Amino acid sequence: MRAVLGSVKRLLIQTLLTKASFRDSLFNIMTFSNKVNHWSHHMLPCAPDTVYTALSWIHSISCSPGRDLLAALSLALADPACHAVHLLTVDLPDQQEAVLRALPALAAGRPVNVLYLQDSGGQLDSNTRDYLQCLTQATRGSCYVITDILNGKLGKVIPLHVAESQSSVPINQVSPVKYCCPSASVLIPQHNTSSPLLRCSLDHPLRPFTSCVLSGRTLGGAEFFPGCRVLARREVDGLYYLGTVMQQVQGRAGVWVVDFDHSPGAVLGLVSSQRQLVCSLDMVNHVRDHTRCLLPGDAVLSPWEPDLRRYGPGRVMAATERRDGFGADGVTSLRVLMWNGRVSLVPVSLVLPIFATSL
Question: What is the pTM of this model?
Answer without folding.
Answer: 0.52
